[in-house]
Specification:
six-stranded mixed beta sheet, Protein-Tyrosine Phosphatase, Chain A, 465 residues, UDP-N-acetylmuramoyl-L-alanine:D-glutamate ligase, 3 domains, nine-stranded mixed beta sheet, alpha/beta, Rossmann fold, globular
């Protein structure tokens, strides 16, 4: 879009005018830097503030914008007092006292997603949910590219949203977190989905109802809604006045799983297919991903693609060649007949439940970390049903152990990942699977879930050595 048109929209929606606005960017992370680049390009006056003494990206920032005012080492009231607009990093709560005070005094909240929405006239696909959003976002991005579209993929995943503007895309595929959505007001996605809702980030949201309400903001506007009818919280978001596509792995929907008769070597048999209405799209066996929750992810991706007119055969070919993402049900190795699976991205209960539900035979589960305020008792039924034994580690391991006190599942304690893997190896027999699916965040012991997954992979491969 032309700069003048973008500025008109920003002025209309947020009274955000380069002549009068004084913008304070709160948080100097990758999102904050992307916002700063955007504001500079659009001619706005702005400053940046970060509570850390030396934010990790500050040297990179000063190389790019040496003359920008930057306040570090705390939240200076004076900086907030003069700000007409705040753009707050998703990593920071809006309940921080200086932020709440500035809002009460009239400062307007704008998000990087709002800025993007005002800056493009191409379709946006929005994807959120407690689990699976990175996988679905990547799938849809790959599907769009296979359909001949210039697709820009990012947001909460990978490239910050505003940096996608450099790609001159035909379509924008955004993974959006609840923290991004809670401060976004003008997004009108051409197609959007909430994949699922389970307890997560309850250290930032008051309860799961508030969390679901923030997720539901992705449906603001008049685009096509893609609804998971297997999830009651998502199904309740249905708006009968809106065009909707549904998906399910349990029931018939617009996109669903069904058995179809096939001919193999002249013998009639039944195979499970990904379906669109009454049309079989591809056998589920051709989807090269572990777990039935990935069948749901594939169906959601297909629904989003159909909503924006992507080529159905190109989308199916994308799924056949999709290898999955690191740390998401990633097969690490098979050693002495034991399969080792890295699902370190399972940072909440729902992700762990989805991973375990995909197994027929009981697994050895490695779990634990920072529960983020979630009720670990919710894990108990699925662990009793699907786990042969459990190895626990991390800050909130005692909460999971307490939740399993009345179960017959053996529980073992580990101080670190190497020890957890060694314990699991001692328990596992040929034909077993060992699943790292922590149901918790990683920051109590690791830099992030990627670091945790890499430590798991290293420990497993050392067994082979």
């Amino acid at each position: 879009m032309e700069t003048a048109a973008v500025l008109n929209l920003l002025k209309k929606h947020f009274a955000l005018d380069p002549q009068s606005a004084k913008v304070l960017v709160v948080g100097l992370g990758s999102t904050g830097i992307s916002v700063a680049r955007y504001l500079q390009k659009m001619g706005f006056k702005f400053a940046i503030i970060d509570s850390r003494d030396k934010p990790p990206l500050i040297d990179e920032f000063f190389e790019q914008m040496p003359d920008t005012p930057v306040f570090t080492g705390g939240f200076d009231d004076a900086a907030f007092k003069v700000a007409t607009h705040l753009i707050v990093s998703p990593g920071l709560s809006l309940n921080e006292k200086p932020i709440m005070k500035a809002i009460a005094n009239g400062s307007k909240i704008v998000s990087d997603i709002d800025l993007l929405a005002c800056s493009v006239d191409k379709p946006i696909i929005g994807i959120t949910g407690s689990n699976g959003k990175s996988t679905v976002t990547t799938m849809v991005g790959d599907m769009a590219k296979a359909s001949g579209k210039r697709a820009a993929v990012g947001g909460n995943l990978g490239i910050p949203a505003l940096d996608l503007l450099d790609q001159q895309a035909d379509i924008y595929v955004l993974e959006l977190s609840s923290f991004q959505l809670e401060r976004t007001s003008v997004l009108n996605a051409a197609a959007a989905t909430v994949l699922n809702v389970s307890a997560d980030h309850l250290d930032r949201h008051a309860d799961i109802t508030e969390y679901a309400q923030e997720k539901q903001r992705i449906f603001n506007g008049n685009g096509i809604m893609v609804i998971n009818i297997d999830d009651p919280a998502v199904s309740a978001m249905t708006d009968n006045a809106r065009k909707t596509l549904t998906f399910s792995i349990k029931n018939k929907a617009d996109f669903y799983l069904a058995h179809q008769n096939t001919e193999e070597s002249a013998l009639s048999s039944e195979a499970e297919y990904l379906m669109h209405n009454n049309d079989p799209l591809m056998p589920l066996s051709e989807l090269p991903l572990e777990g039935r929750h990935n069948a749901a992810n594939a169906l959601a991706a297909l629904a989003l693609g159909v909503a924006v007119g992507l080529d159905i055969q190109a989308m199916c070919n994308t799924l056949r060649n999709f290898k999955g993402l690191e740390h998401r049900m990633q097969r690490v190795a098979q050693i002495a007949g034991v399969t080792w699976i890295n699902d370190s991205k399972a940072t909440n209960i729902g992700a762990c439940v989805a991973a375990l539900e995909g197994y027929v035979r009981k697994v050895i589960l490695i779990a634990g970390g920072d529960a983020k305020g979630a009720d670990m008792n919710e894990l108990s039924p699925i662990i009793m049903s699907k786990a042969k034994s459990v190895v626990l580690m991390g800050k909130d391991a005692p909460l999971i152990k307490q939740a399993l006190k009345d179960s017959s599942v053996p529980v073992y304690a580990a101080d670190n990942m190497v020890q957890a893997v060694q314990i699991a190896a001692g328990l596992a027999k040929s034909g077993d699977s060992v699943l790292l699916s922590p149901a918790c965040a990683s920051l109590d012991q690791y830099k992030n879930y990627q670091d945790r997954g890499e430590k798991f992979t290293q420990a497993v491969l050392s067994l082979a050595g």
